[in-house]
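Re: [ENG-882] Designed sequences occasionally contain unexpected residues at chain ends

Forwarding the minimal case from QA. Structure tokens:
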């Protein structure tokens, strides 16, 4: 992943001075270290309960805890709060090393620069009003934090090759994320200012905020279901545009990758004897590999073909042991989450498609339903392509027979006639 590696290193370099400023603040006797520790723990816990916009993109109320650190703690401390909270989430849901490094550094940059904005605006307004005015400063900090988080998310997805569809793809990724973060960040700004005036208002404020959070999460889940439906429809249109099986496979892969984290992907077809399987289309970290063939038994694709059932592995290392299927490597990706769906052609399971991710628990039951729908559309396209190929071969054969018949009618030499018949067989 050369793109994401470069982005991770660059983001870490930017985050380093912000984290250093936060670390230096801990040596100030006035720094409320227990309060910062409580905010860090709160943000880390909230990170463990995200709402997924896509399988590899989530929003979390941890952003509220980070904004609280921006508003109530010294300059730089929020960068450490955000970084620790994100790192804690990576322990629960590991990602590829460079991706994890980028995520931790990016959120530290967002929180650190938001803290810088907050303190700068407060200092500026003190000169105007003669006293600290925190509402505009908190709003400005929330805007900076939200904007940087969205931009860095788009950069990450682009570096991973998962941002397709132009402006529509950007809107489909950032729209639900931005709306959810906007609502609870600016709700938090209002709540913080109310608490500054009267801390007891926190008692009714927290339940109201929790209710609002629940409504936001419900909306995000509904939008994700809509995206899945749009993807299924998009696959139907995309795969119908070509009669070339390999191009059909490419279209299926692009559609799957637009909504799911896909580090590896394959389309496999069984032979007539159903004892061998050919991986006709293989993708490993965005690179197409040469087709390969192996025994059907002992493979996840073979199990899906034999049973006709889809497979969801949330932790491939453990789930493979449960299924009794060893890992068979064909690329460089060490997959931790796997989806496999059977391909039914004319009522018979003839193959399977699979999406794989390096993240643990990258897919859920909704993603399994999505890839099953995609597999149904892909099977129809494959059947259509095979029928076209057989029709083309038959037409060519009939044309060759017609031409042979014309030649035979005009042939006078018996020896030449015999040789021509032999050559046509």
């Amino acid at each position: 992943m050369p793109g994401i590696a470069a982005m991770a290193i660059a983001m870490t370099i930017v985050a380093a001075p912000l984290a250093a400023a936060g670390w230096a603040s801990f040596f100030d006797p006035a720094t409320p270290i227990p309060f910062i520790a409580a905010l860090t723990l709160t943000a880390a816990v909230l990170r463990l309960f995200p709402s997924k916009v896509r399988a590899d993109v989530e929003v979390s109320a941890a952003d509220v805890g980070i904004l609280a650190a921006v508003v109530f703690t010294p300059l730089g401390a929020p960068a450490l709060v955000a970084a620790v909270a994100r790192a804690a989430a990576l322990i629960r849901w590991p990602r590829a090393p460079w991706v994890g490094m980028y995520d931790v550094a990016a959120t530290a940059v967002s929180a650190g620069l938001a803290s810088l904005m907050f303190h700068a605006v407060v200092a500026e307004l003190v000169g105007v009003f003669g006293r600290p005015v925190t509402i505009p400063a908190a709003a400005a900090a929330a805007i900076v934090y939200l904007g940087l988080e969205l931009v860095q998310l788009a950069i990450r997805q682009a570096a991973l090759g998962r941002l397709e569809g132009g402006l529509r793809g950007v809107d489909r990724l950032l729209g639900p994320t931005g709306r959810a973060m906007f609502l609870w960040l600016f709700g938090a700004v209002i709540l913080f200012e109310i608490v500054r005036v009267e801390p007891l208002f926190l008692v009714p404020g927290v339940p109201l905020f929790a209710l609002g959070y629940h409504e936001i999460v419900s909306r995000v889940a509904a939008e994700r279901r809509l995206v899945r439906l749009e993807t299924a429809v998009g696959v139907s249109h995309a795969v119908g545009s070509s009669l070339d099986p390999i191009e059909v496979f490419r279209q299926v892969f692009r559609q799957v990758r637009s909504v799911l984290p896909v580090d590896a992907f394959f389309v496999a077809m069984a032979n007539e004897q159903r004892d061998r399987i050919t991986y006709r289309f293989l993708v490993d970290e965005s690179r197409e590999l040469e087709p390969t063939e192996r025994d059907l038994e002992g493979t996840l694709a073979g199990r899906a073909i034999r049973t006709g059932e889809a497979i969801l592995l949330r932790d491939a290392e453990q789930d493979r042991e449960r299924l009794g299927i060893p890992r068979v490597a064909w690329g460089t990706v060490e997959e931790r989450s796997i989806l496999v769906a059977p391909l039914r052609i004319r009522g018979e399971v003839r193959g399977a498609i699979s999406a794989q991710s390096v993240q643990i628990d990258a897919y859920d039951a909704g993603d399994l339903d999505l890839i099953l729908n995609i597999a149904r559309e892909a099977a129809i396209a494959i059947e259509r392509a095979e029928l076209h190929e057989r029709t083309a071969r038959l037409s060519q054969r009939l044309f060759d027979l017609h031409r042979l018949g014309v030649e035979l009618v005009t042939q006078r030499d018996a020896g030449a006639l015999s040789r021509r018949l032999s050559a046509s067989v």
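QA comment: On inspection the terminal residues look reasonable. DSSP finds 13 helices and nine strands in the chain. Proposing we downgrade this to a documentation issue.
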